[in-house]
Every structure is written in structure tokens, then in C-alpha cells.
Amino acid sequence: MKVLTATEASRSFAAVLDEAERGETIVVTRGGKQIAVITPAPAAPGRMVKAFLARSARDLDSDFEADVAAAREVVDDEMRGTWPDA
């Protein structure tokens, strides 16, 4: 894992993307704080993801949407106030 300041990443952004493409993870810092992580993109082709979602939609039970909504409410309630406002 490589660590760069925001200034360094900005000045050599094409090289940073080249490194990510080769599998490197780059942490970007500003003022000594981690502000971003640049990682390689997942290698799943879009048609594979689309096919998976189409298959999964057939297999989901009718309560799935309600289950996801309920889980999101719990997470939202637990996380409220823990993330800085943008």
C-alpha cells in the first residue's frame, strides 16, 4: 500500500491510476489525515453482474424489499452522528 499526500496524488494522478490498474492500493492524505483510498476496480464484467442480478431477482422472496428497508433503518439509526457532515 502506497501513501501519498493530496498534492502528490494531484500532480501525478495518471501515474496513480496506472498503479491502481496494476493492483496497487493508494492512500491519499491531507494534513496527516487519510482522506481517500484508491483501489483497483473489481474485475467483474458488466454482463456478469447484470446476469447475476436477473437470476437473483427470480430467487428473492416477497419480503426481501421490506427486510432491506428495515436493515437500512437500523444501520441509519446506529450510524447517525458518527460520520462527519459533508
From TrEMBL:
InterPro entries: Antitoxin_Phd/YefM, YefM-like_sf. Transmembrane segments: none annotated. SUPFAM superfamilies: YefM-like. Antitoxin component of a type II toxin-antitoxin (TA) system. Belongs to the phD/YefM antitoxin family. This is Antitoxin. It comes from Nonomuraea monospora.
